[in-house]
Structure formats: C-alpha cells, structure tokens
Amino acid sequence: MTASTEFWLISAPGEKTTKETWDRLNKYTAIKNQALSQNSKFSLPDLKVGTLDILVGLSDELGKLDGYVETVTHKLAQYLGEVLEDHGDKLAGNLLANGTDLTSYMTRFQWDLAKYPIKQPLKNIAEIISKQVSQVDADLKTKAHSYNNLKGTLQSLERKSIGSLLTRNLGDLVKKDDFITNSEYLTTLLVVVQNAHEDEWVNKYENLADMVVPKSSRKIFTDGEHTLFTVTLFKKVVDEYKLHARENKFVVRDFTYSEEEVAAGKNELKKLTTDKDKQYGPLVRWLKINFSECFMAWIHVKAIRVFVESVLRYGLPVNFQAMLLHPYKKSQKRLREILKDLYCHLDTSGTANTVSETNFDIPGFMVNNEYYPYVYYPININFWEKK
C-alpha cells in the first residue's frame, strides 16, 4: 500500500511499561495481518517539566510557534522550487533534513542536544527556536528580494530580445551598414510590416512622402508575423512619412543606431546573466541548508508539544509513549476507528472522535475542533506543493 505525506504524532500513557503501550498499538493497527500504518517510536529526552501553570501557558505559545515555523519552512521550500524552476520531483529530491529524506528523519528522530540543551527550561528552548527561525525568515526576504529583482530585470531584457518586432529590442538585428549615418540631410527608418502586407509595403513605401530615396528599402529580419524593413529619406519629411505609414498600418519604430548603445545593451544582458548565475548556486545551497534547519526545528517544536500536552493530560510522574504513525492512503478513517477503540478508556467525557459545537480549548485535546482521547498532532511533509 502507498503511504501518504501525512503523519500522526500521538502519545498514550504508559501501562506497566512504555513497551507494552508500544506493543499494544502495533497489535491494534494490524488488521488481519495487514497494517493500516507504518509505526515508529518517537524518542523524547528527559525534558524539564516545570510547574503546571508554566506548562498551560506554554501550550498556547507552542501552538503559535508550531504554525509559524511550519509557515517559514513552506516558504523556503516553495522559493527553492521557484529558483529551481520546478515544483515536482526535482524539488522533492532537494528537500532533506540533516542530509536524509524527511520521512527517515522523523521516524529516526533524535533530539539535538547541542542546539537545544535539555537542561534549559522548555520556554527557553522555544525562544531559541523562535529566534533561529525568525532570523531565517528575515534573511529569506532579503535574499528573495535581491534575486527576484535581478531575475525580473533579466527576464525583461530577454523578452525585449526575443519578442515581437513591434516591441523587441532591435539592436541585435541591425548593423551599421543598414543605416545612413553622419548625413546632414538623410536618415534611415526601421519599419515593421505585417507579413501579409509585405507586397503592399514594397509597392507603397516610396510614395508615402516626398523625398524618399528610391529603391532604398531593405528587408532586415522576418519572424512569424512581421518583417522589419529599412527605408532612407530626407530628415525634413520624417514626421509626414510616419503619419502616412501609420495610416497604412506600417509601424515606424523609434530607433537611432548607436554602436555604443547596442554594445551597452548586449553587455548589460551578459552582465545580468553572469550575476544571476553567480547568485544561483549559493542561493540554492542556502535554501537547502535553511530548509533543513527549519524543518528540524519544526519537528523539535512538535516534540515539545507532545511532551507538554502528555504531561498535562496524563499527569506526573512522566510516563507515556510518543509514537509516530504514517497512515497508508485510504486507511485514515479505519485507523482512526482503531485508535478510538484502543484508547476509549482514556475518555471520560464521552465525546471522543466527535466534532464539538462549542469553542473550548483543552491542551492536546482538540485539532480543528475534533476531540481525541489521546494526544494527537498531524505532520504533513508535502512541501513540494503550494500551501
């Protein structure tokens, strides 16, 4: 069976031992020798409990932190997809945590003692994570703004170099020999003509004004819809020529040939392309590294949440087993029923697995206004699709 991208992080109180809690879960989630989910123990260190009041206050703060860290992690993934110009398998293959795929990281989760010392109060650890992710979020905005501006300018120039003859930069299509230069009286115009009207142009261009040089029109470039022509005439009739050309649906482009400007345009495009290439590699590496850091921080927030809510739910001394369930597709409904049967003895309200019409908030009880007798947090790792 195919596993989904959603995981369920749950906890249940220890029975005689936490091993019995774990064994019982595996027994119940296997129906007729066919598992409904892939299960793994979720290892938690001996975190500092603190007082009940602190845990209750921390529960609400952790919920907000959870959402914030998930949002920043999604931002990193989605922007990496934009930079890679891909939102599918290529992106998914670049989203790693500590050098491994996201599923493996979670199913083999180990608390990072160096980053988040467990001798610190839980509130301090949450603040460490918040500051870390806030800095990444700020840096992402700066880097994205810089790269997007560069990319946008480059794309604008590229569109002008490959677009319609009505709008594109003509500097790449012409050369000095196409123009009369350094003349006191004569000038050369560039005219865009629809391909269907090419014969009409050939027959009319000499008569659109007086003082047009006979047989001076030359075809420069043709695309799928238009053709670019030159025509030479006296400067004093340019305005009249433009007017009559427009009446015949011939478009005179405003263009003055300058070797310096043509070279500058080419150099700017080359420079922007080089700058983009220089920024691309370091930016991709930064995004991959910080996606990994934020994802790991997010799972640590989940770990703290399941610890806090389990203590609030099941009491002291700390005695519960955290477990990570990876439901198979189309098995979620049946798995939820099995968990209800397995842990119904924990429910004293008689409302397990029912949607509440009231808006009460009990730590660890409610997810999207749905009550479960066990602590439950969903984790969806589908970061390669837009949130």
UniProtKB/TrEMBL annotation:
Pfam families: V-ATPase_C. Gene3D superfamilies: 3.30.70.100, subunit c (vma5p) of the yeast v-atpase, domain 2, Vacuolar atp synthase subunit c, domain 1. The keyword Transport applies. One of its GO terms (molecular function) is proton-transporting ATPase activity, rotational mechanism. Belongs to the V-ATPase C subunit family. Subunit of the V1 complex of vacuolar(H+)-ATPase (V-ATPase), a multisubunit enzyme composed of a peripheral complex (V1) that hydrolyzes ATP and a membrane integral complex (V0) that translocates protons. V-ATPase is responsible for acidifying and maintaining the pH of intracellular compartments and in some cell types, is targeted to the plasma membrane, where it is responsible for acidifying the extracellular environment. Subunit C is necessary for the assembly of the catalytic sector of the enzyme and is likely to have a specific function in its catalytic activity. V-ATPase is a heteromultimeric enzyme made up of two complexes: the ATP-hydrolytic V1 complex and the proton translocation V0 complex. The V1 complex consists of three catalytic AB heterodimers that form a heterohexamer, three peripheral stalks each consisting of EG heterodimers, one central rotor including subunits D and F, and the regulatory subunits C and H. The proton translocation complex V0 consists of the proton transport subunit a, a ring of proteolipid subunits c9c'', rotary subunit d, subunits e and f, and two accessory subunits. This is V-type proton ATPase subunit C. It comes from Holothuria leucospilota (Black long sea cucumber).
